[in-house]
Amino acid sequence: MRLAVGSRLGQYEIVALLGAGGMGQVYRAHDPKLNRHVALKILPAAFAADRERLARFRREAQLLASLSHPHIGHIYGLEDSPSTGSGQAGVQALVLELIEGQTLADRIAQGPVPISNALAMAKQIAEALEVAHEHRVVHRDLKPANIKVTTNGIVKVLDFGLAKEGGEASPDLTQSPTVTVGDTRDGVVLGTAAYMSPEQARGQSVDKRTDIWAFGCVLYEMLTGRIAFKGD
């Protein structure tokens, strides 16, 4: 179910759909109280009634709130619209910083990034990951599509939907916004194949080193304009 432009979720007025994926839909919305635009990340309706999935969604809000940093997308709140009397689950949404600009994937699609610019962006990504790792949070899905570059060159790391506190693997396939690969002990692998460390691809427990691997893949792609690993 998509929210109609002009409709409201709590105090927020829906302006436009920005994107959709396995972790739900993202809308541009207007906050009339503070007179600013925000991003609303909506949990799919099919998930909202599932306690475990809903707990993961709320946990993402808590993780993001603990990672306040200039190069990590900020969270403003969690909007909880109650269920209707007809048995339909309520709408759950993260209220996020709306970051204007293109994704790093969009930028790379235009060609290799000049080395001075690539290093400047890579430094900001590394700083964001360092803060996350200091909080024992492993992103697990770092890739150009999850990195925004603002019009003034500020880098923001987004989408901690696969993030795992403490660095252990999660068996929760349903929340993967990307792919499932292989036949593992838990039956799932979460992440994006081209940026997965070997241990992540095997479905083994991961720690911050899996983000460092993905960071290397992202940097290679910035400098060359090509994905580092194209195979299966």
Biggest β-sheet strands, sense, barrel:
6 strands, antiparallel
Q: What oligomeric arrangement do these chains adopt?
A: single chain
Tally of separate helices: 6
- Using only CA atoms, what is the Rg? 18 Å
Query: Looking at the structure, what is the overall shape?
Result: globular
Overall strand count: 11
Q: Helix fraction? A: 25-40%
Summary, kept brief:
By secondary structure, the chain is an alpha+beta fold. It is 29% helix and 23% strand. The two termini are 33 Å apart.
Describe this entry's structure for a reader.
The structure is a single chain. With 232 residues, this protein is an alpha+beta fold. 29% of the residues lie in helices and 23% in strands. It contains six helices and eleven strands. Strands 1-2-3-4-6-5 form a six-stranded antiparallel β-sheet. A hairpin with a 2-residue loop joins strand 2 and strand 3. Helix 4 packs antiparallel against helix 6.
